[in-house]
Amino acid sequence: MSPIELVNLAEQRKVEMLSITDHDSLDAYNQKIITPIKIITGIELSTQWNKIGIHIIGLNIDVTSKHLQEIVEAQKMVRIKRAKIIAKRLEKFGLENALELIKSNSHGFYIGRPDFAKLLVSQGICTDINQAFNKYLGAGKIGDVKNKWLNLDEIILAIKKARGVAVLAHPLYYKLTNAKLRRLLADFKNLGGDGLEVVNGYQNPDKTEYLAQLCTEFGFSASIGSDFHSSGQWKKLGCDTGLITELPAIWDKINVSF
Fold it and tell me: What CATH number is given to the structural domain containing 33?
């Protein structure tokens, strides 16, 4: 969805506060958006920790920060290189002119594996998105091309230089053991990390409780988000902030009234 389409949907869903956190892109904030919703500038930056891919959200950032823009441009170049490799690999399975087709149907943002998944479905090579990832794009598959992302300390520094706060996105997504997750949280905290995403979409209450305990243990502010990507997916736009009322909220840290 375009940023304007997204905001219109957010208004319909009665969302009161929204951050558009595209992966390694600030393009959404190049458009003028008029809305009663409180917009918090944001981005989701890819990085690596102990050779594991990790996502860090920057909130309340200065999108004009030269240092952050340089980081974003570097990340985009990495993604473009990866997209070309994926496109070349998928040609042997009948997916032709993938980059051109994706670009013609995009809003100008980066090209990621979900774009290839949608194309595989539209071209009749796969029956649905899940099959596209299970067969071609998931971990260890032909379209799973590893990137050389910037290190965790570089990403956090870029967010700080842009006067933003750094939040570890979807901590359980990385499938780390409890011990490894705690080591990640300790390193993230020591490097200046501010928050932990305690709720990511509609998750099991046991997971929320576990992350809330870690949030308190490591002294993080709690973040919450729907992690919405597009209409028709399992994740709907908007979250109930009442799920983290017992924790210090990330929007309090950035002095945003809610």
Answer: 3.20.20.140
